[in-house]
Every structure is written in C-alpha cells, then in structure tokens.
Write a structure and sequence with these properties.
Blueprint (H helix, E strand, L loop, with lengths): L1 E3 L10 H9 L5 E2 L21 H15 L5 E6 L1 H12 L3 E7 L5 H7 L7 H15 L8 H4 L8 E6 L7 H10 L4 E6 L4 H11 L1 H18 L1
Parallel strand pairs: 1-2, 1-3, 3-4, 4-5, 5-6
Helix pairs in contact: 2-3
Length: about 220
C-alpha cells in the first residue's frame, strides 16, 4: 500500500497510517512528489495531479518491478486522490483505491471556490496564467472523465459533509461516473482537511477491510 499526499504536503502526511496498516500485515510506502519534501525538483511546479500522477506511475513501477509486489493498494487525499485516479486509469497495476476528497476537475474546484466578489472573466485569466507558469493544462486534470476506466478494480471514495472546498454535488458526480465495484463514505461534520485527519485515521480499520477484500477478490480472479 502507498499513500499520496495532498497539495503542499509531503510523505509526512501519511505517517499516521503506517502503524495500523503494518500491524494488519501490509507493507507501506510513503513518498514525496518531485520538488516536495526531500525529493529533487522545482518546488514551484505543483500541478494538482497532472505531473503528480506521473510520480505515482513511477511509484507503482518501483513497487511492482523493483520490489516484486503484485497486489498494490493506494490511498490519497485531495490532489493526492486525484493523482491516484489519473494514474490508475492508465495503470492496471494499482489494484484497489481509496480516494479521499478528490475533485471532479480542476475547473470545477477553482470555480466552486471562486470568491463571489472576484469577476469570473478575470478569474479565468488568472487561471490561464497560472497554468502557463506551472507548465500544465487543466485538461490534464479531469478525473471525472477517466475514473470509469478503473473498473473492475474497486474504488472507495470518502468525503466530508462539511467540506467547503468540494461540495456534495461535485462528490456525487464523481461517484456516479465511477464504474463498479465502488463505495462511498460520507463523514458528517468533517471539513476538507479533516477528511485526512482525523477522518482517514479513524477509518483505518474499514480501509484495511476494503483492501483485504479487494485483494482476496483479485487473487480469485487471477
């Protein structure tokens, strides 16, 4: 199992999940994206999942080709969850996914969080400049368009009902777009940041059951 951090976080964001998963018999890999934590690279090029999903591709190759691990589970929060979805849509070696508070598209999360006093035209112009400066396109960050490709591998989505960044309608649209098998957990009175902690920490036993069940079904199919 590996953990993909959210925006502005590195491998330390996954530390609290290591003990319960190791106690359950899982090997756990934590990593930092390029330019994050102690990883090499430009620290100003975070792309909300575009390049980060490529880092996840590399993580999966390391686990499968270098370490010889055949059943790989992934957990991510926010942009980390989006990065996992983008990677898993093109990478069959990710066998089961827990995606906590992923957004549908970069356009949606930007528009849903646009200050009411900020003119939409100017806001769109700033978004374009941001993408040019960062060297990626919002068209690369549209998990809602590719999440169905993960099927028939299982995905578990987790959202907070008090999440002000990702409204329930956006979460419901992504869940609807996902193929089977899929599950969703709604956490009452939990904000976007709290989905990660205490949310995922409290859900560790459920996530462990999810991965065990998923890997057992994968073994039967294989």
């Amino acid at each position: 199992m590996f953990y993909a951090p959210a925006t502005a976080h590195d491998l330390r964001q996954g530390l609290s999940l290591v003990a319960p998963f190791q106690q359950a018999g899982f090997q756990v890999l934590l990593f930092s994206y390029r330019g994050s934590g102690d990883s090499e690279g430009n620290r100003l090029t975070f792309s909300y999942g575009a390049r980060e999903s490529v880092d996840i591709d590399a993580t999966v190759r390391y686990l499968s080709e270098t370490r010889g691990i055949q059943r790989i589970g992934a957990i991510g929060h926010s942009a980390g969850a989006v990065s996992i979805i983008l990677s898993a849509a093109r990478n069959q070696k990710i066998n089961a996914i827990v995606a906590a508070a992923p957004y549908t598209t970069l356009e949606d999360i930007w528009q849903d969080n646009r200050p009411a006093v900020f003119p939409k035209v100017l806001y769109l112009q700033l978004q374009r400049l941001f993408q040019l400066r960062k060297g990626f396109s919002e068209k690369q960050v549209r998990p809602i368009d590719v999440i169905e490709r993960i099927s028939p591998r299982p995905i578990l989505l987790i959202y907070g009902l008090a999440d002000q960044r990702i409204p329930k309608l956006q979460a419901s649209r992504l869940f609807k777009a996902a193929g089977l098998p899929k599950q969703i957990i709604w956490l009452p009175d939990i904000s976007h940041a709290e989905v990660r902690s205490p949310g995922l920490d409290n859900l560790a036993p459920q996530m462990i059951r999810f991965f065990n069940d998923s890997f057992r079904e994968t073994a039967v199919v294989n």
